[in-house]
Amino acid sequence: MVDGDDAAAAGATEQIRADTTAGPGRRRMMRGLLSCAAALALAPVVAASRPAPPAAGGDSFDETYRGRRIQGVRLPEAGRSTSDDAWRITIDGRPLHLMRRADGTWLSMVDHYTSYRTPLEAARAAVDELGPGQRLSDLSPDPLDGMLPDGVKDMMGRMGLTVDTGGMGGMDMSGGGGTGAPVPDMGMGAGGRHGVRA
Amino acid sequence: MAYVRKNAGALTATERKRFVDAVLEVKRRGEYDEFVRTHVAYFAADGETQLRTAHMAPSFLPWHRRFLLDMENALRRVDGSVTLPYWDWTRDRTATSVPWTKDLLGGNGRRSDQQVTTGPFAYATGNWTIKVGVTDGRYLTRDLGRAASPIQLPTKDDVSWALNDPVYDVKPWDSTVTQGFRNKLEGWGTGSGSASWHNHNRVHRWVGGAMLGAASVNDPVFWLHHAYLDMQWERWQQAHSSHRYLPAAPPGTGDAQHGRVVARHDKLPPWSDTPDQLENMSGVYRYE
């Protein structure tokens, strides 16, 4: 298995194509780009089965809150590039992307206009907003933000891409001629973000 | 000649219908979901080091102004008579007042799952399926006033608190500043919880459901809310005519905000316009 950095670096030379819908092509590409990194990142979550207190200072938590399984693990310092602290959070196994405010508080994709003192509080607040039967979607822009280079993260975020942690196989790094800079192929016509330009 | 953006409550029945029909057509064409994606992609928080454009930054106002113009242009390609209405939440403050009527945006979500079941954006109409959402739910959700833990919309005094600050924005140009018109209107407070829900943020929270998440654009009230905020920027300019968008120049290389905020003459991604070029809209539209 390649490590996270190698996988990301290989992926960075991949020609990226985004469709207007989350088609199988894009999903396969993202799986290839991220599956190894995801496996590494999620391994500690599986190992951490004891409930942890919400207080800052813990490195993981795993609890059932209002019928939802909330799991979180602090990412190792070595992989971080943009933040002094980064967490991998899932709700019922689906990644919940968190953002950090300059004052150290946290906000999630579900609850984007309020911030919370800890990742666990932000995750619980997200559960509070989830309707019955609803699950998190794959919208979160950069669930592996602690482990990917800024360029790839930025690219993913702008394209609304995320990792599909449901599939760990199928490395698909067949993009040819990867000698250029990690610039995504934005040839997506009206489907791209440039399509909103007036 | 400049067109007029009206208070949603002042629209005639015909104007309401034409606005709604144009929004539905923009959705049908697939353009609407691109607006949702763009807003998701450009929400960067200030605890991270990348360029911030849409939120937690001075360009909160010009970014959304430009975003609204793109949407308004999309609507006007469908129907040239349509403009974006605004929702004055300091006046229309209940879950049954404008714009929550059946002939405009429809009403509150139902209690069981927050699903909007009335009006033109109800899932059952077949015209408003959420395709780019934070959850896998495919219907629009609202929780007007937050039934489980009620909050109030911001008041006229809350807006005045922002309008009365003569300085557009202050260092470090992020969500932690306690002075400056921009963040007093955007609404990030110090600390967490209820302290961080002022004007703009508090309205997103009061509407709830889709409006609370990264994909808030899925609720068409997003446009009416931001049109009202855009109008406040114009009011602030009129009240403090010697003051302008700040920062006037990019933070220097030794500044922690270097490369992270858009200065007055910098291009504002994803567009090529600058805040300077977006300060005066009098040749394009006016509010009444």
From TrEMBL, chain A:
Residues 1-24, 177-198 are annotated as: Disordered. Pfam families: MelC1. InterPro entries: GriE/MELC1_sf, MelC1, TAT_signal. GO terms for biological process: melanin biosynthetic process. Gene3D superfamilies: protein ne1242 domain like (3.30.1880.10). It comes from the Bacteria. Keywords: Copper, Signal. Residues 188-198 have a biased composition (Gly residues). GO terms for molecular function: copper ion binding. The keyword Signal applies. The keyword Signal applies. Belongs to the melC1 family. This is Tyrosinase co-factor MelC1.
UniProtKB/TrEMBL annotation, chain B:
PANTHER family: TYROSINASE FAMILY MEMBER (PTHR11474), TYROSINASE-LIKE PROTEIN TYR-1-RELATED (PTHR11474:SF126). Gene3D superfamilies: Di-copper center containing domain from catechol oxidase. Keywords: Copper, Metal-binding, Oxidoreductase. PROSITE patterns: TYROSINASE_1, TYROSINASE_2. Its cofactor is Cu(2+). This is Tyrosinase family protein. Residues 55-72, 219-230 form the Tyrosinase copper-binding domain. The keyword Transmembrane does not apply. One of its GO terms (molecular function) is oxidoreductase activity. The keyword Phosphoprotein does not apply. SUPFAM superfamilies: Di-copper centre-containing domain. It comes from the Bacteria.
